[in-house]
Amino acid sequence: MAFIDQCKIVIVLVFGLPESPRQLYKYGKHDEALQVLCDVYDREPNDPMIVRESDEILQALAVETKHGEYQWKNIFKKDENFFVVMITPTIINNLQWKAYLIFMCTSYAFVPLIYFCYPETAELSLEEIDFLFTEEGVNPVAVSKRIRKERRKGGRRVSIVGNRGSISLATQHGNDKDIEVNGDDHGGAHIEKL
């Protein structure tokens, strides 16, 4: 019974949460969005962190407006999930406990794939992560590694510029030098200090 009471409390408290700044910007409520950012980070509207976050959201919305939003129905177009759902009961019935060894080996096989082929997204905003995956012709792993390398060197401001738009990546410390990341013809990217 205590769990249901806790759920009721959470449901009531959710109504007190502010709208997402991204949603507010999307519907043209810029002042409200800026106020929510200021309240969340407990900073003034002209604080560099608030200005940067606001600019990143607006740039991501501009890219979405130009190229269209992601359609969630695309997730269900994959037939691989259907295959796994259909074959799993058969494997478990026929192989019994050995089926779990297959699942374990398959899971371990993904470790190097994830390590080498997926970009690091820690400490990146949603807009920055979105940009890593939407830029055509640019390897997101290479861009992510170079951004982290530049941030470790001195926390410089990083700007990714590409065919579908641009977005700024920044740390809260460091100097004001800009770095530009551009896609090259070979699917990679390079960073230039401006």
Description:
Helix content is 57%, strand content 10%. With 194 residues, it is an alpha+beta fold. The protein has eight helices and four strands, in the order H-H-H-H-H-H-H-H-E-E-E-E. A four-stranded mixed β-sheet has the order 2-1-3-4. The model is unreliable at 164-194 (pLDDT under 50). Helix 4 runs parallel beside helix 7. The radius of gyration is 22 Å and the shape is extended.
Keywords:
single chain; 194 residues; alpha+beta; four-stranded mixed beta sheet; 8 helices; 4 strands; 57% helix; extended; disordered C terminus
Biggest sheet statistics: 4 strands, mixed
Please give the number of β-strands: 4
Low-pLDDT residue spans: 164-194
Average residue pLDDT: 76
Strand order of the largest sheet: 2-1-3-4
Helix fraction, binned, reads 55-70%
Q: State the separation between the terminal residues, measured CA to CA.
A: 61 Å
Overall body shape: extended
Helical/strand content category: alpha+beta
State the order of secondary-structure elements, H for helix, E for strand. HHHHHHHHEEEE
Strand content: 5-15%
Radius of gyration from CA coordinates: 22 Å
